[in-house]
Automatic annotation (TrEMBL):
Provenance organism: Mesembrinibis cayennensis
Descriptive protein name: ARMD1 protein
UniProt cross-references to InterPro entries, sorted A to Z: ARM-like, ARM-type_fold, DUF5578
Gene3D superfamilies, alphabetized: Leucine-rich Repeat Variant
Protein origin, superkingdom: Eukaryota
């Protein structure tokens, strides 16, 4: 039997999830602000404690809302940062797997190619892809299998933000190391950046080429 304390914690979780489910955009934006402020940097056990062992229920809702709204920029930056709280949580590999199961990599890569979205939103997308790549070789391969190298190369060449270009460069470098199956693809992707109109993108691509050769 569950204790009174456990029952109260579960009740609070249900109330929170019902609040999210019934909330409109402005209210959800506020919920995301509070979630990021209160949970950034937490580990998987800490998140589970916060959500009465039901953190995955909230992550599933975030992923579903991302899938439905990413093309329209509805609180996109806050939504990506909130998902990042889960993906960056120490010992939180299961959160990563849950996000990938709903097609998370493809959504993040598609965000990079949407011209009407803000650079800061695309940068958050690159940061999440970096967290995925940092999880190991099979996750790097998944990004590459999803045409990630091409998407990142195009983003690096077209971006007007130095910070975003540097984030894309770092991810390209990650994909080029410890990933022998796709190292040549990364090399070709970096070469494709060189004729672009951005001197900064050219310089970053050359730097990374030297590192992966």
């Amino acid at each position: 039997m569950t204790s009174v304390k456990e029952q109260e914690a579960i009740r609070k979780l249900m109330v929170f999830l019902q609040e999210w489910d019934s909330a409109h955009r402005v209210a959800r934006s506020r919920i995301l602000d509070n979630f990021i402020k209160g949970n950034d940097g937490k580990t998987e056990p800490e998140l589970e404690l916060e959500f009465s062992q039901g953190a995955s229920l909230f992550l599933a809702r975030l992923a579903a809302w991302l899938r439905m709204t990413y093309m329209y920029s509805t609180c996109l930056n806050k939504l990506l940062k909130s998902i990042g709280v889960f993906l960056s949580a120490a010992s939180g590999r299961r959160y990563l797997i849950e996000f990938l199961e709903i097609g998370g990599v493809l959504i993040l890569l598609e965000i990079l190619g949407l011209n009407h979205l803000k650079e800061e939103d695309k940068r958050e997308s690159v940061k999440l892809l970096q967290l995925i790549a940092d999880a190991g070789r099979k996750y790097k391969e998944l990004i590459c299998e999803s045409y990630g190298v091409q998407s990142l190369a195009e983003f690096l060449a077209a971006s007007s933000s130095t910070e975003a270009q540097e984030d894309a460069q770092a991810l390209m470098g990650s994909l080029g190391h410890g990933n022998p199956k796709y190292q040549n693809q990364v090399y070709k992707g970096l070469l494709a950046v060189l004729p672009c109109a951005s001197p900064q993108a050219q310089r970053l691509a050359l730097q990374t080429l030297r590192g992966v050769q």
